[in-house]
C-alpha cells in the first residue's frame, strides 16, 4: 500500500462530502477526486471525459512499465516521486528532448513530442501544458497503425487549447480528456498519479 499523508486523507474526505452523489465508477471517481484535490476546483467533475477502455489500458501499461511521456518538465516532476515508489516507469519530458525547435514556427515541446512519438509510440502521453504538443501527437496518429496506451489531454489556456482537445476527441485512441480551456500540469500529473494508485490496487 502506498503511504497517504493525513492531510490528503482529510482532503479526500472533504471532497467526498462536498461532491455528493454521482454516477462515476470507482476508478473514474478516484481520478476526478485527485484532480479536484490538486486544483480545489469542482468544475472538473463535469469536464473530464474517459473513453471506454482508457483507465484499464493506462493501468495495464503502468503495470507493464511502459514509458510515460510528458509534454513539459512540470508534469514530469509531479509524477516522478510516485513512479519511483511503485513501478519505476521511464519518464520522458518532450521539451527536454529538443534543445531548439527544428522547424520554424514549431515549439520545442512540439518538436520534442514528435521525437518521443518516434521512439515510444506505445507510451502513455500526459499533456498538461502545450496544445501544440497535443496537436502534433494527434497529427501523427492519423497515419499510424500503432496507438499509445493512453493519451491524457489536459492542456490549459486560450490559444489552440480547445482545438487540440477536439483533435484528440476525433481519434480512436484511449484517452482521458479535460474539456474546455481548463487543465494544466497539476491536472495531468494528478491523473497519472491516480492511475498509479489504481494500478497499486489503492483507490
Strand order of the largest sheet: 1-6-5-4-2-3
Query: Low-confidence spans: pLDDT under 50, at least 5 residues?
Result: none
Largest sheet: 6 strands, mixed
The count of strands amounts to 6
What amount of the residues lies in strands?
5-15%
Percent helix range: 40-55%
What report would you give on this structure?
The chain is an alpha/beta fold and 203 residues long. It has a single domain, classed as Cobalamin biosynthesis CobH/CbiC, precorrin-8X methylmutase (Rossmann fold, 3-Layer(aba) Sandwich), CATH 3.40.50. Helices cover 51% and strands 10% of the residues. It contains 9 helices and 6 strands, in the order H-H-H-E-H-E-H-E-H-E-H-E-H-E-H. It has a 6-stranded mixed β-sheet with strand order 1-6-5-4-2-3, with helices on both faces. Strand 4, helix 7 and strand 5 form a beta-alpha-beta unit. The longest helix is centred in the C-terminal third of the chain and has 15 residues. The radius of gyration is 16 Å and the shape is globular. The mean pLDDT is 94.
Summarize the structure.
With 203 residues, this protein is of the alpha/beta class. It has helices spanning 6-19, 26-39, 44-47, 54-64, 73-85, 108-119, 131-142, 161-169, 185-199, and strands spanning 48-50, 68-70, 91-93, 124-127, 150-153, 175-178.
